[in-house]
């Protein structure tokens, strides 16, 4: 053996330790920062106007094997609970039907966010230069795959056990029919992955995860359990245990750019845009799912919103970032106003277009109407009256041939879609702060509902060009659109969407066709 | 939050009065007969697997990216108007980007479950190995020069390949591709960490052994043995935008040749001759990951893209082009690596010229069989091996 004298001497000096010895993850992790090396051409494929520091550390010091160990334990608990305990209790079909329908949307739409967060975290893994920071984003990539599969597992579980599997079993295909989908993609898909890498991190981590994760994931579990659903909490609370890591990644992203004085020039604008865009969708949609998609109420949405979005996030979380020059977004106070009426406005539109849903929607009953009036004084005179009029016109009954969107049309209430947020709005009926403005650009008309979005579009119109459902479907009869989008059940004739959650009087394609309802583009007519 | 739930709300499943009220409004009959989630997904095997049900079509692409179920445009684009995802992200064409399946049917849960078992077994193995004092049989030269420095330098090879995947996971056009690529990347990161784990372990049982990554990094960045590999890895990491070119060149050209040779034919093959039963334990985990990834990549490129109904010949042409491009650099990397034989004693039947040639032949014939034949490619293996052997002195 080619053994030098020096090596031999060194070897003899070595003492063998025969105590049973393993290696803990931190002992490997502490070398991770050195896995990088400098080379001239190194670059990121997703440029950012910010400058991320080279020595950024991560808080959760885990290596691949340890990650797998921790997640496997959490999985065992969660899947054990679902597949053993809760299955034997028949819990998959013991939640109130209104909530069972809400979970078709909540679980699948959250899945979209989780799925796109995989790509978003990968983009940040690419753009970070510090090895530890890359490692932190890698763990997030893996977590988001986990969450995608967990959300899917809820729909999978309900497909097997809930009395109405339609929609749970095909949300990934039928979700694209209705008016809530494109806005969903704006906040939970494209907003995370298309843009300056740090801007995307602000969207995903500073706003999506730090601000809306609480209401979305944690509040959903409270509403779920009030309405008899113990499946959702088992899964969502397990998801939430990973989210802390992601908020820490967001925090580290800000830390990594904070050393650069130029950062604060852009950061507050990016934060404001991200906050406004996301709240524009989540504020009405979450409020609507909770209050109109349940029988048993937990608390008024406006209260939840104030506690988590306004005080917790806008105050405490953003406050912690104050030392890096981060300010509370100026749009926060406009959003606070919207948190009162926006979800009621949206419910009118969603219900009016119920056949395009992959879930069943129901009108509030007498007791619920009282709850709405008690918590939102003035609710009945506006929303309650309209909903009762629809009910009186037979909107729930297939023999009526009446779809509420026809009432809106007949009474001159045009429904527009905001080009930037993709959220539908009806200026003549809204009690929230929506106001209509229309611009022409590239021979196309574009509608907007607020200053913040309009300003984003005016600066970069080429980023927001997506057509709305009304533009896409203009001139087409509604049942034709629904059939084309697969919104029909296994019997080939009954619709997936329904205007009630009863077991009888289900609408069929024929019933819908008989209503003779044709889409029109409000910008053209 | 859990306490708050109990405090403020009654649980609908447990509160008798509420549970009864709920049961009353649940219709006695199911409203639909289709109880399989993702019933419209085309199953690869006999029936739709859990992996397919949970993964397929989670990617929300519009139908102008083949296979997508959505319609219309992206709702927000990059500055300047580049779309979130688009067909221009790759030169390859598919009639359905959702068609790929991982033959191991891995979704997140089975993936971490397997690795978690490997994690547990690794620690138990290390404890047994150290309690026996097995390290005493490892040749000090092999340990301090070859394992610490030259095997140590492979940290950066694996870590560089891992980083080449970030843009793949961002850009690829299908959900099953995304999970296969992520798992392949995660394994590469794990491999790099396992090399360092072995070094940390040796330093814990033998005081004086350096656990620092300084020496291996110096070898990686300056030693001529790894020059070709380093130049290639740097290009792989940042130089390519096309997600398919990255996956193909990493997993179907470079790693099956350079990676397999260095791991299997050099370190794994030589270790027993130096009394090293530790390194093979780690390398064999890496080799298991290599085979699982090989299956996934074979499905993606050979089963799915090469046999695409519409684009088979175009895809094969690009794969051949990329193979040629990356093969010449891989050959340079191997030629440079031959210099390492100069640093070890000649072991008859293992490190002599004829044996090294045989080792290269094993690696190349595996590769030709696994990939080259299947894309109608042609390589002159003998000529390549002769060229590589010019590095052997
Ligand atoms: Fe997540
Ligand atoms: Fe997350």
Write the layout of secondary structure elements.
The complex is a heterodimer of chains A (525) and B (393).
Chain A: H1 5-13, H2 25-29, H3 64-88, H4 97-127, H5 131-161, H6 171-174, H7 181-193, H8 197-226, H9 231-258, H10 263-292, H11 301-320, H12 332-352, H13 366-375, H14 379-392, H15 404-410, E1 416-417, E2 424-425, E3 437-441, E4 444-448, H16 451-459, H17 469-473, H18 478-484, H19 509-515
Antiparallel strand pairs in A: 1-2, 3-4
Helix pairs in contact in A: 3-9, 4-5, 4-7, 4-8, 5-9, 7-8, 7-10, 8-9, 8-10, 8-11, 10-12, 11-12, 18-19
Chain B: H1 2-8, H2 16-25, H3 50-55, H4 108-131, H5 140-151, H6 154-163, H7 166-171, H8 175-205, H9 214-222, H10 227-238, H11 243-270, H12 279-306, H13 312-337, H14 353-372, H15 381-389
One fe (ii) ion (FE2) binds at residues 117, 144, 209, 243, 246 of chain A.
What's the gist of this structure?
The complex is a heterodimer of chains A (525) and B (393). Chain A is mostly helical and 525 residues long.
Please state the CA-atom Rg of chain A, rounded to the nearest Å. 26 Å
CATH class of chain B: Mainly Alpha
Strand order of the largest sheet of chain A: 1-2
Instruction: Provide the domain count of chain B.
Output: 1
Most strands sheet of chain A: 2 strands, antiparallel
Specify Rg of chain B, calculated over alpha carbons: 25 Å
List the total number of helices of chain B: 15
Give the largest interface pair and sizes: A-B, 135 and 133 residues
**How many H/I helices of chain A?**
19
H/E series of chain B? HHHHHHHHHHHHHHH
> Quick one: CATH superfamily of chain B?
Ribonucleotide Reductase, subunit A
Structural class of chain B: mainly alpha
What percentage of amino acids of chain A are in beta strands?
under 5%
Spatial separation of the terminal alpha carbons of chain A: 89 Å
Query: Given this structure, which CATH class of chain A is correct?
Result: Mainly Alpha
Average per-residue pLDDT of chain A, rounded, comes to 93
Q: Could you tell me which ligands this complex binds, including any ions or cofactors?
A: fe (ii) ion
Average per-residue pLDDT of chain B, rounded, comes to: 96
Which fold name corresponds to the CATH topology of chain B?
A: Ribonucleotide Reductase, subunit A
- Spans of chain A of at least 5 consecutive residues whose pLDDT stays below 50 are none
**Element pattern of chain A in H and E:** HHHHHHHHHHHHHHHEEEEHHHH
